[in-house]
Amino acid sequence: MDNLKKAFASKLLKIKAIKLQPNNPFTWASGWKSPFYCDNRKTLSYPELRNYVKLELVHAILDRFPEVEAIAGVATGAIPQGALVADALNLPFVYVRSKPKDHGLENLIEGELKPGMKVVVVEDLISTGGSSLKAVEAIRKDGSEVIGMVASYTYGFPVAREAFEQAGVELVTLTDYEHVVAEALETGYIAEGDVELLNEWRRDPAQWNG
Fold this sequence. Notes:
It is built from seven helices and ten strands. The two termini are 32 Å apart. It is α/β, with parallel strands linked by helices.
């Protein structure tokens, strides 16, 4: 698994899906200042890499959650990858909205799950875990069983680890913060002096101001 995490981190850095700017921080939608930005949806624009991600997510599911009966993608970032994974596994696919549609059937889950189905949730990125676990809650309320979640990337924030533990959801990711930073340092994308600043940010991202 470590070899995969290193290899995928390298691929994300090559297409600039991950940007590290310790001296010119980004502002996230949450308002957090961050020296780190991950947009692994860029992999969708590279057919070979898109297929790589799909196959590695499929392998992770078959290895860790072989009893899977349906795939759910979290809107909007994980809808395309989730659909690709479901197609590769020949399984039903649904996606979960962040809030119910405000017209028509007002669905929160688009598609159909049969009661008791064993579902694996596909996510593109895990930050605090809040939106991902809301999707899990929606699927459980709908009468299905979430047996795990797979994602391309996680920041590995303590708040997310605690939230997943409390929700009883096993999370498997293709790569993570540690492997991206190590690969960025090894390839000269960042300097040795940037690493402590990045680690300081990850310890308390909500309070970090650069």
